[in-house]
Amino acid sequence: MLTASEKLVEQLNLTAADAVAVYNPSNMFYLTQGYTGEGVVYISRSQRVIITDFRYTEQAERQAPGFRVVMTEKGLTHNQWIARLCREEAVAVLYYEDDYLTVKQYSALSMAVGEISLTALNQAPEALRQIKTEAEVSAIRRACQITSQAFDAILPVIREGMTEKELQLELDYTMLRMGAEGLAFTTIVASGENGSLPHAIPGDRRLRKGDMITMDYGAKFGGYCADMTRTVALGQPTEQMVHVYSTVLTAQEMCEEALCAGKVCSDIDKIARDYIDSQGYAGRFGHGLGHAVGIDIHEDPRLSFSCHDILRPGVVMTVEPGVYLPGVGGVRIENSCLVTETGCEPLTTAPKQLIIL
To answer: Is residue 327 a contact partner of residue 301, using CB atoms and an 8 Å limit?
Structure first.
């Protein structure tokens, strides 16, 4: 089986006169299959090099044993090291991450390499990252397992009078205690009227009886993310919010049932949007249905009206419809799902039916 760096060489059809410089930490992690420090990764047909400073040299040697590690010194920057490697190999074309480098960083790289032609990488590593290997799926599966178990553990903790921030901290600690390496993203806890904010920031609002409480969170394990949202009720919710919940749950289950290799992303999004609109909530589901998950919490492809990519087996997608009513509240339900030839496998397994605490 080819390594990630070998796949990139093959995908780009690199010749002896080509090389790649990678600065994006997520792409560096993927291509080295484990390096989490700072620096630059240089890849050519004959070399695999991590350029970093003293703080990370030993770490790089441990995490990426197949890579040569070189250390920057005073007067020899990362870009100058790239230029040296290019000259040693008579490189004529250097691929770079046009979507990652700032104008200032690009200018510094261009000045360092001189007459070598800089060519856009056009997200080639990200394209490779879309289809997960068995090892990657295993890491995501474990992250999702921790995330799902944390939901069961947090329910008895939720009580009237605690703040959103306190619930966030309890949830974060629970995931870490259960074995998460870190958090996939900043946990969202939105209660009552704050539930209408899809990316609400947990604050000092105290939980009250009748609140719907949305928790959007995920563990990170082995460098890979989980993403799950559940909405629960603290005491009996209003009939309006019960109907909102039922609408979102039905939309989520319809789309999960439809998720399959060969389907068009925008078509899956349309299923949720059409159903939610039909229930009287037109315009109240204002974000995409989902996105791929991996090393980064948001990857491509996307389940949205504007993404017409065809789903392939091995992609992990979120399915997360929601309804948001300003001044009233909101509901979102989300699973991370592994796309297969015949359907999908939900990797987050916490119960989705309305739970009234």
So the answer is: no
Indicate the pTM of the whole model: 0.96
Look at residues 298, 268, 318 and name the one whose alpha carbon lies nearest to residue 126: 298
- CB contact set of 308 (below 8 Å; sequence gap of 6+): 264, 265, 266
Alpha-carbon distance 295 to 172, whole Å? 19
Read off the DSSP letter of residue 55.
Answer: G
Report residue 268 CA to chain centroid gap: 19
Structure tokens at 25: 């930490």
pLDDT tens digits, one per residue of 103-145:
999 999 999 999 999 999 999 999 999 999 999 999 999 999 9
Closest to 334 in 3D by CA, of 261, 247, 249? 249
DSSP letter, residue 85: H
Residues in the chain, pLDDT under 70: none
Cβ pair 249, 353 in contact under 8 A: yes
pLDDT in tens, 152-188: 999 999 999 999 999 999 999 999 999 999 999 999 9
C-alpha 357/C-alpha 354 separation (Å) is 10
Q: Is 69 left (phi over 0), alpha (psi -120 to 50) or beta?
A: beta
Which residue shows structure tokens 């691929």? 95
> 50 and 65 in contact (C-beta within 8 Å)?
no
Q: Which of 187, 196, 198 is nearest to 297 (CA)?
A: 187
Q: Whose structure tokens read 């909530």?
A: 281
Sheet holding 117-120, edge to edge: 68-71, 48-52, 40-44, 18-22, 93-96, 117-120
Pairing of strands 228-234, 335-339: unpaired
DSSP conformational letter for 206: B
